[in-house]
């Protein structure tokens, strides 16, 4: 019988559980929904949705070669999904729907509503774990609860991976049926546009993702452990956007790393081990999202931290958002984000810590701003990263460990090359001056703002605020 496979953030033909199992059961029609109202409500960045659409166009092309039709339906809101999918199933005469699980309260509500609608109509609906190595809730402490500490979660994850490592499923095969037309994929959507130069940075499609993964494994992974904190070096995989859109799976990443490391997870080449560790952080935050639903509701992971008296400082927030803090490393980082949709991990931490500690501005403001601009915007990882930096999360940085952007700048961008790339107005400064230009600029000749805060004073303010909270909690 004809199977309907609903793809979302899993736009690939290889190692795709829903698509593979649907195809095993008969000829398949693939469906995707365009939901601009929901995307806007979730603050999804234009560059991210433009990338998703370009990946969909590439998938459509690949599906055509396999004689698998793609239907593209526009339903403004996820609430309209159950009806739209059931109607399509009726129209094409399909009895079964397949999709891969997605995480977050809204995603789960949407999927439960679709499953219930199909069930009521006497249709089957099959769901798969695909985005993760382990189903959330399947790795628990001995007491049966979700871990709150990453290293403990990782220990169990390693044990399970040693016992049985999830394999990659093969790419699906062509189907032998009368050719049937696919719906066109729009080349762009209003409110979700990216510039040509942004598009050029992120080539779409499964083949492009596979190419970047090979390049990373062959040329970058060996030095990953040593270079991963250096924004001035191309030292990380830059695969996050492909993982977020599901153009690449975590299993494909894991197996590529294992191949480079003689099949070892937690020993052998430091680069591979360290990279697998990051894939497990991704896993951890998604498990946290499911097991602690308050995180999905924009609440602090540690409930007592919802009482932090965050400052209302529109001018400070604006300066941070637009790269005008007067701290070159932070401003360069923000310009990188606004121009490319991506920011280096070390800078995401620095930037988040500055907003939540030195400016004492609510982490949710920063979380939203990042989401509105990241091409890899992912609720679990973004929320996890923000709550870590704000000391409100699992495993969070202790409140008294506050990064100093100047010393971090000297340490991780030692020649200032990263700063120079994004702040050309400082290109003339040499040596250490680049990290703190105001000290060098005796005659105010450089068009660059003065630092908006005194690091020492604001650090002290944050320490007192967080300490008093700890005392009263
Ligand atoms: P690599 O270093 O090559 O790592 C490989 C993969 O592991 C990444 O692609 C990503 O999927 C995963 N990963 C790496 N670090 C983390 C981490 N700390 N948490 C979860 N997964 C991780 N990552 C996102 O994918 N989406 C986000 O919206 C996001 N927001 C963040 C916000 C803040 C404040 C912080 C501190 C971190 C955030 N991260 C986010 C995590 C991390 O910064 C990015 O995954 C990483 O920079 C992506 O670059 P890469 O692909 O080169 O990573």
Overview of this protein structure:
With 473 residues, the chain is mainly alpha-helical. It folds into three domains: 3-129, Rossmann fold; 132-168 and 205-291, Serine Threonine Protein Phosphatase 5, Tetratricopeptide repeat (Alpha Horseshoe), CATH 1.25.40.80; 303-472, Orthogonal Bundle (DNA Cyclobutane Dipyrimidine Photolyase, subunit A, domain 3). Helices cover 49% and strands 5% of the residues. It is built from 21 helices and five strands. It has helices spanning 17-25, 36-41, 46-65, 81-92, 105-120, 150-163, 196-201, 206-220, 224-227, 240-244, 250-260, 270-291, 314-321, 328-340, 345-358, 363-373, 379-389, 405-412, 417-422, 437-440, 455-472, and strands spanning 3-6, 28-34, 70-74, 96-100, 124-128. The chain has a five-stranded parallel beta sheet, with helices on both faces. α1 (17-25) links the parallel β1 (3-6) and β2 (28-34). α16 packs antiparallel against α17. The model has no long low-confidence stretch (mean pLDDT 95). InterPro entries: Crypto/Photolyase_FAD-like_sf, Crypto/Photolyase_N_sf, Cryptochr/Photolyase_FAD-bd, Cryptochrome/DNA_photolyase_1, DNA_photolyase_1_CS_C, DNA_photolyase_N, Rossmann-like_a/b/a_fold. Keywords: Chromophore, FAD, Flavoprotein, Lyase. Residues 1-133 form the Photolyase/cryptochrome alpha/beta domain.
């Amino acid at each position: 019988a004809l199977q309907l496979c609903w793809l979302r953030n899993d736009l690939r033909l290889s190692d795709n559980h829903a698509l593979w199992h649907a195809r095993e059961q008969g000829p398949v029609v693939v469906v995707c929904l365009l939901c601009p109202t929901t995307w806007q409500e979730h603050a999804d960045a234009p560059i991210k949705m433009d990338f998703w659409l370009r990946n969909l166009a590439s998938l459509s092309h690949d599906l055509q070669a396999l004689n698998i039709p793609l239907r593209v339906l526009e339903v403004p809101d996820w609430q309209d999904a159950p009806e739209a999918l059931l109607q399509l199933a009726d129209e094409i005469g399909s009895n079964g729907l397949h999709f891969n699980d997605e995480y977050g309260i809204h995603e789960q509500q949407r999927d439960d509503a679709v499953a219930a609608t199909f069930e009521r109509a006497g249709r089957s609906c099959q769901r798969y774990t695909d985005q993760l190595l382990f189903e959330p809730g399947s790795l628990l402490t001995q007491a049966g609860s979700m871990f709150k500490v990453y290293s403990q979660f990782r220990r169990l994850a390693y044990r399970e991976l040693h016992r049985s490592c999830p394999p990659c499923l093969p790419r699906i095969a062509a189907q032998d049926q009368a050719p049937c037309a696919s719906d066109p994929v729009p080349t762009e959507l209003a409110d979700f546009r990216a510039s040509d130069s942004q598009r050029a940075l992120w080539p779409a499609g499964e083949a492009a993702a596979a190419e970047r993964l090979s390049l990373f494994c062959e040329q970058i992974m060996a030095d990953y452990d040593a270079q991963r904190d250096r924004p001035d070096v191309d030292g990380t995989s830059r695969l996050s956007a492909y993982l977020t859109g599901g153009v690449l799976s975590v299993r494909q990443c894991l197996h590529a790393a294992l191949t480079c490391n003689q099949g070892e997870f937690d020993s052998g080449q430091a680069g591979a081990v360290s990279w697998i560790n990051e894939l497990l952080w991704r896993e951890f935050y998604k498990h946290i999202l499911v097991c602690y639903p308050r995180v999905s509701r924009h609440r602090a992971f540690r409930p007592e931290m919802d009482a932090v008296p965050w400052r209302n400082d529109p001018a400070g927030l604006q300066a941070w958002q637009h790269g005008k803090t007067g701290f070159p490393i932070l401003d360069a980082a923000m310009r990188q984000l606004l121009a490319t949709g991506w920011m280096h991990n070390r800078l995401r931490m620095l930037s988040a810590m500055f907003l939540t500690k030195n400016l004492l501005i609510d982490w949710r403001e920063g979380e939203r701003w990042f989401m509105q601009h990241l091409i890899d915007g992912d609720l679990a990882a973004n929320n996890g990263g923000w709550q870590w930096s704000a000391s409100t999360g699992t495993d969070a940085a202790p409140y008294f460990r506050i990064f100093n952007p100047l010393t971090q700048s000297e340490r991780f961008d030692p020649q200032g090359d990263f700063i120079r790339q994004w702040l050309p107005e400082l290109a003339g400064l040499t040596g250490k001056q680049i990290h703190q230009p105001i000290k060098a600029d005796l005659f105010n000749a450089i068009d660059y703002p003065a630092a908006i805060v005194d690091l020492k004073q604001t650090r002290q303010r944050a320490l007192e605020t967080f300490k008093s909270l700890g005392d009263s909690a």
